[in-house]
Design a protein that fits this description.
heterotrimer; A mainly alpha; B mainly alpha; C mainly alpha; A: mainly alpha; 87% helix; B: 8 helices
């Protein structure tokens, strides 16, 4: 029962996204544009760019995720389908998990694929790019999960977008620290396995905790 | 036997809490002022000048209490918000909301005084170590809570959403602390040991502890003030508020 | 601890700026906060008064 709710919602969201392909690509476009602002603003000095690259890529990934998570529930809220889904005797936790999964597939996954390009932009070495990609693979689901929670809490609010970012950013800080730190370790020739393990632990905690909290938030926001 | 727990929970009733808080207010203010006076006296006129840090170390008499209060108040806020959510207790929810601005203030003070302690002592206003970073994130958590509850018009939804956010935040704070600590430990970049307070003479410790209690009394006072205000604002349609107001109207 | 003069006290061994900036801002905020709270409380009472009045005179 839970699994079919998850798959139903997930497939529905992906299908809806496929009808608006341009919108679905916006986070990726934002990511690339925001990234390229930094060499322009900071200057093309390769050493500087290499140093700041991990942090900047992570921050831009974070912002891109947050900007697109806003609209996660808006459509369903507007046409009343969200209330229907919550009223139905099915698991709202599964619903929350499906929404996060859809967000990750639509936003997180493209970001991971774009990582090599981002890495080249900043002149990163191949091992560094690999570390960055692995970090983002573990980290973007965390961002999607936390973002979904934030979207549920700020459902329907006028100040939604900015408020969402203010709420979620502190929560996402550990992932940012470990993800960017891992790249730093690899670039320094050290092992980043500790960072990745911790990132993995964060992912597991988010997987367990976030959908539950999101389901609670949805109930709070729609009552 | 059952009278005892009833008596405790009966103070959750808005009118009783309002009256009780009102009676306790002067007590807390007196405590805050007296304890501050004693603490500051000991801190400035009894505690000696530090060998390494000179007189700059005297900032810790407000820095450390502010930091402790900022963390304690967040947990207390999350606790009462949770109680309010779990038991649908209006007064508990109001107490949580009343705590937030004071908690944010103490967090800001901890950062501000910490910066002014850091500059003469270690040469820099700021460093991204575990404690300072966590304190900064704590400030953002407070601000996020305040922003969220203020953005939601429906009072009940605002209280509950705030409770959820506060609880999630409480879980997150230790995670943030350990993540920054773990990373800086690996990088060995934290050359500055910002945890090194001066070797504490007992007078220094005494002053710090007394100031902590002073801040604690202050926090009680301000939080009770705000809770009373929230009670009036939210329960303005009730008979007990009308009575409170009428007592203010002569004749 | 004995300070030889008021000037010495305020100088705080050369760290006067840091010490008094810290204490100054702390004092300012811890005075402003309760004052603001009292102000808001007065406002709430006045508004409740107005509400009660309108109800009674209806």
């Amino acid at each position: 029962m839970t699994r079919s709710v998850f798959m139903t919602v997930l497939r529905r969201d992906l299908k809806l996204a496929s009808r608006r392909r341009i919108d679905a690509l916006l986070p990726l476009a934002f990511f690339m544009v925001a990234l390229s602002l930094f060499p322009l603003g900071v200057g093309p000095e390769p050493k500087t760019l290499q140093e700041i690259a991990p942090g900047i890529v992570w921050v831009c990934a974070l912002l891109a995720s947050m900007l697109s998570v806003n609209a996660l529930f808006n459509g369903d809220l507007a046409d009343g389908s969200l209330e229907q889904m919550l009223l139905a005797p099915t698991s709202s936790i599964a619903l929350a998990a499906a929404k996060a999964a859809a967000h990750w597939l639509l936003t997180g996954l493209p970001l991971i694929v774009a990582t090599p390009l981002a890495g080249l932009m900043f002149g990163m070495s191949a091992p560094a790019i690999a570390a960055l990609a692995l970090g983002l693979t573990l980290g973007t689901p965390i961002l999607s999960l936390l973002g979904t929670l934030g979207a549920a809490l700020t459902l329907g609010l006028r100040s939604g977008g900015m408020l969402l970012i203010l709420i979620v950013l502190p929560l996402a800080t550990p992932a940012l620290i470990f993800g960017a730190g891992a790249v730093g370790m690899v670039e320094a020739g050290l092992s980043a396995s500790g960072h990745f393990s911790l990132l993995g632990a964060l992912l597991i905690c988010s997987l367990i905790g976030a959908p539950v909290a999101t389901a609670a938030a949805l109930r709070i926001s729609t009552e | 036997m059952t009278a005892q727990p009833l008596r405790f929970f009966s103070f959750a009733a808005p009118s009783r809490f309002y009256a009780l808080a009102g009676r306790l207010l002067p007590l807390f203010w007196v405590m805050a002022v007296v304890l501050s006076a004693i603490g500051l006296y000991i801190g400035f006129f009894v505690a000696p000048t530090d060998a390494t840090q000179g007189d700059a170390y005297r900032i810790i008499f407000i820095h450390v209490p502010a930091a402790w209060m900022s963390m304690l108040l967040y947990l207390v806020m999350a606790f009462w918000a949770g109680i309010g959510w779990a038991f649908n207790a209006r007064t508990a929810a109001m107490v949580a909301r009343a705590i937030a601005p004071t908690g944010a203030m103490f967090t800001f003070l901890a950062l501000w005084t910490g910066a002014f302690w850091g500059k003469p002592t270690w040469g820099t206003y700021w460093v991204w170590d575990a404690r300072i970073t966590t304190e900064l994130i704590l400030l953002f958590l407070y601000l996020g809570y305040i922003a969220l509850v203020n953005a939601i018009d429906d009072v009940k939804r605002a209280d509950q959403a705030g409770a959820l956010l506060a609880i999630v935040g409480s879980v997150n704070v230790p995670i943030i602390y350990f993540s920054v600590a773990a990373v800086s430990l690996k990088n060995k970049s934290a050359k500055i040991s910002t945890t090194a307070a001066p070797k504490m003479a007992s007078t220094m410790l005494a002053a710090m502890l007394i100031m902590t209690f002073a801040f604690w009394a202050y926090a009680f006072a301000v939080v009770f003030m705000r809770t009373r205000t929230l009670l009036i604002e939210r329960e303005s349609h009730t008979a007990w508020v009308a009575q409170v107001v009428e007592r203010k109207i002569p004749g | 601890m004995s300070w030889n003069s008021a000037a010495e006290f305020f100088a705080m061994g050369g760290y006067g700026l840091y010490v008094w900036s810290s204490y100054g801002v702390t004092a300012a905020l811890m005075l402003a906060e309760p004052l603001l709270a009292r102000q808001r409380h007065g406002q709430a009472l006045r508004e409740a008064e107005a509400q009660t009045f309108t109800r009674e005179t209806e």
